[in-house]
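help with this:

***
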Amino acid sequence: MRVPLLALFAVLLLAAPLAVEAQAPATVPRVGFLGSSAPAESAARLEAFRQGLRDLGYVEGRNIAIEYRWAEGKVERLPDFAVELVGLKVDVIVASNTPAAVAAKNATRTIPIVFATAADPVGSGFVAGIARPGGNLTGLSLLGPEMVAKQLELLKEAVPKASRVAVLSNPAGTHTAGLVKETEAAARRLGVRVQFLGVRGADAFDNAFSAVTKERPGALFVLFDPLFIAHRTRIVEFANKNRLPAMYAHREYAETGGLMAYGASLPDLYRRAATYVDKILKGAKPADLPVEQPTKFELVINLKTAKALGLRIPPSLLQRADEVIQ
């Protein structure tokens, strides 16, 4: 039977949208990035994250979109930014650190969240356990086992005559109790007396600094805390002005002028965060993705600061440094 030409044309018109729909490309996944600092301060870490995505086949602007929100050091802005990302219905949120992860966690119980760095994922309530997170958060732990002990050992090696060490800690941090305990144990092994000085907020630094000046310790040890990172310039300037050799938890301190820093490589953690994003976009649930610990650590020594302090860094220590700032 011959089909009328007009009827055949109508059938083709009806079929065309179906064919186009069948061939339409998949929706580009959207990632929300919640940063506590300013973009310039996070440039190296952000590039490591993007490189991690590229290694997995994701090219920003082509087959993946990233929505950025930067608090620029004002953590009180994080909750609103987290709500914005949730409102955009992103597929996954990457939280730069513990405060960002807290804000994201409070904003959603359903959208997967990957923390690029977290000091104490269990203590902060992000996950039920390291092996089985159990909720909508997973990611990378910032503090590896025995890291604090290693930091104190390196400080003692650089300043062997230091028998008393002042330790800056933040009693308000969920991770602090563990760090204090490890510091006390390491100090006993090294025969060092430690004096803990609590700093809960920006307005508490002056009192802590006055106590350090009064006690005149042989060195300063700054434990990890987001508050201290945000005020690292202030801390470094105090230590250098008072000719105090100091050990810090991240390379940013040494780049700011601090004597030495030992800790997990933040760019490496951000690069590995991309792996979590990939797995989640492919269907994995955060509850089933174990939290991973840092595997790459770096020792950075500021030789210019050492000379200004009149301190001679042992050649054996310089040889082990990942970077020496001249």
